[in-house]
Each structure stands twice: as structure tokens, then as C-alpha cells.
Amino acid sequence: MKNIDESVLKSAVSLILENKNIIIIPHHNPDGDALGASFGLRLVLQSLGKNARVIAPNDYPEFLHWLPGSQEATIWFRQRKTAIYALEKADLLIFLDFNDFGRIEKMKETIQGLSVPKLMIDHHPYPKEIADVMISDTNASSTSELVTHFIKWAGFTDKINKKVASCLLTGIVTDTGSFSYNSSHPETYEALSILLKTGVDKDKIYDNVYNNYSFQRMQLMGFALNQRMKYIPKYNTAYIYLTKEDLKNYNFRPGDSEGFVNLPLSIKGVVFAAFFMEKDDKVKMSFRSKFTFPANKIANDYFNGGGHLNAAGGQTNLPMAEAIKQFESVLKEYKADFDNLTKTGIV
Ligand code: 5GP
Ligand code: MN
């Protein structure tokens, strides 16, 4: 935890030791990292004798339901009474994998209104002041990596058993695309070493996460690649879009589009990939990039979003065709950046 002040870590440990009823909150549309960190930390807190509960803002994809503790999680979106009852009794809130109240969407007002101590552990850039104690390290691969190091720093390594390790490993594996990005710091592998020492079955976790899709999802992927992908060589960009009708035709379930945004990045020369999907009356966007191309800047400047340099997201109220048009016009402004990557031989 070399990037975090010792005083911050000490305060975080004190908050945990001094409080009994602890609520852990991951971000809206929680991913493998947000949930892995949440369920992993919950188990550790329970071994320390705490009443610990995870309240997620909304449901998450089925391919993450196997995570230990998933069945006991409370979903704010559809279990409001239980969630509020638990929050009223809470004496510590722990925010994992987000650093801005906007990321918990409709839970925001209730959570901001609670006058209990708050601890945040997160790896996203530009943290807002959302907690009394904030462990923020943008160099970390994942929040799950940070949670692993934090547990060790606090002297609770013996509480990391196979179940805890399977949660935290899931977070690290999913947030690094199985160690293909965001994973060049030795600290990531130090965390893995701690987790693997429990004897956790890494290959089984990989299988649970990546080989757990429906037939329909594979068909949708084929359709997306064949009919809904556009490649723009002069901007080193390719994107995929799916309309509501497309989703209906393939009996879409939450999580089915997981990973689609990464697919165009395997085209030689592509450094920027986008995925557009119609959701309610919005278009939700995911961006992925390679090297120094700033996916988060585009998400933040044009599409009400943000994220990491190479993995970001946003949304717009524009119809799909307009959203795509805007996206293509933004690419023009980055022509010099694309050319620069090509000229310098990076691409
Ligand atoms: P994904 O494409 O997997 O939904 O999101 C990738 C990353 O982009 C997330 O880890 C998060 O950091 C960021 N992100 C996605 N959607 C949004 C959004 O609407 N707002 C902000 N600020 N960040 C987002
Ligand atoms: Mn994360």
C-alpha cells in the first residue's frame, strides 16, 4: 500500500474495528470487481465478528451469481424496505469501486443523508470527497487488489480463505481482462500471490466467469460482429451498436453484452473501440482503448461519463443514429492523436 498514507490506513482499520454493523456498497450495474471486492471484504468482516451486509444498487448479471455471498446480498432497486432497515442500523458504510455518488444512481440521496462514518476503497481517477476516509489508488488494477493489500496491511491475512480469495481473484481477473490491461504493476501479482496461497481454484474461477454464457448470447455476438460492427481505419477505431430490437431478437439478458466492447480491439491497428446499446430511453456507451489514447476523456467531454484511460463509459439521451453521428464527429477531432500513434510506430 505504498501509495496510501499510513495515517489513512490506520483510520480505515480503526473505523472497521470500532464499528459493528457495516454496510458495503458497490456501484450501480456492479461488475466482477465491485462485487468481488464487496463479497470478499464482507466475508473477512464477518470473520472479525461484524454484522456485514452488501447492498447493491441494482441487479447484476447471472455469470456473477456464483460468487460466495451473492445470495445474501440486498438489492436496493427491489428490496427497498430491507435495505433501508439495514441502513438505519448501520454504523459504518464502506463504498467499493466508485468515487462519486453519481455512480450509485438512485441510492445517492439516501446514502448522502446518513450521518454515519464512511470509508471508500477505489481505484478510479478523480475521486470526489465522498467519505471520511478514502483509500484511493489509481495505479491499482482493481478495487479487489486494493482490498487484498488492505486486509494484509491490517494484519488480517489469516481471514483470507478460499472463499474470500475466489471473490477477490474474480475482481482482479475481470478488471484486467485476464491480465491483458491495467496489470503491469508488480503489486497486482503480490496480491495474487496472497490469494493463490489459499489454494483457491483459479481455473475454476476463470471457467465460472468466462464460460458461463447462453447459446443466445453467442448468437448475438455473431450478429453484432457480422451486422453491427463498423471499422473506420483512418481513425484506428471500430465500434459495435445494438438496438432494442436486436436485443429482443436474441432474447437479451443482463450481462449478455459483457465483453463485446473489447472485440473490435483485436483488429490490427484499432486503438479505440466503442459499444453502443439502447437501454430504456438512453444509449449506454462503453469505450476501450489501447496505449495512451484517452477513452475516459472522450467519455467525460462528450458523453456524460468517465472512467479509466483505457476503459470508460457514458450515456446519452440522443437516439442511436445521432449518438453514432456524434461519436464519429468526435473521432475527427482526435485525428492527430491517431496519426501520432501510427507515426511513432506504437500502432
Ligand atoms: P463498462 O464499459 O464496463 O460499463 O465501464 C468501464 C468503466 O468505465 C467503469 O469501470 C467505470 O469506471 C467507467 N464508466 C462506465 N460508465 C460510466 C458512467 O456512466 N459514468 C462514469 N463516470 N464512468 C463510467
Ligand atoms: Mn474496478
Task: Give an account of the 3D structure.
The protein is globular. The chain has two domains: 6-210, inorganic pyrophosphatase (n-terminal core) (Alpha-Beta Complex); 215-343, Diaminopimelate Epimerase, Chain A, domain 1, CATH 3.10.310. The model has no long low-confidence stretch (mean pLDDT 97). The protein has 347 residues and is α/β, with parallel strands linked by helices. The strands form two sheets. Strands 3-2-1-4-5-6 form a six-stranded parallel sheet, sandwiched between helices. Strands 7-8-9-10-12-11 form a six-stranded mixed sheet. Helix 2 links the parallel strand 1 (21-26) and strand 2 (51-56). The chain has helices at residues 6-18, 32-47, 80-89, 108-112, 143-153, 162-175, 186-196, 202-210, 215-227, 244-249, 295-302, 320-333, 335-343, and strands at 21-26, 51-56, 74-75, 92-96, 118-122, 133-136, 229-232, 237-242, 272-279, 282-289, 306-307, 311-316. Bound molecules: guanosine-5'-monophosphate and manganese (II) ion. Residues 124, 261, 286, 305-308, 311-315 line the site of guanosine-5'-monophosphate.
Query: If strands are numbered along the chain, what order do they take across the biggest sheet?
Result: 3-2-1-4-5-6
SS-based structural class? alpha/beta
- Between the first and last Cα atoms, what is the distance in angstroms? 34 Å
**Regarding CATH, which class of the largest domain?**
Alpha Beta
Please identify, by name, the CATH architecture of the largest domain: Alpha-Beta Complex
Strand elements, count: 12
What characteristics describe this protein?
single chain; 347 residues; alpha/beta; inorganic pyrophosphatase (n-terminal core); Diaminopimelate Epimerase, Chain A, domain 1; 2 domains; six-stranded parallel beta sheet; six-stranded mixed beta sheet; 13 helices; 40% helix; binds guanosine-5'-monophosphate; binds manganese (II) ion
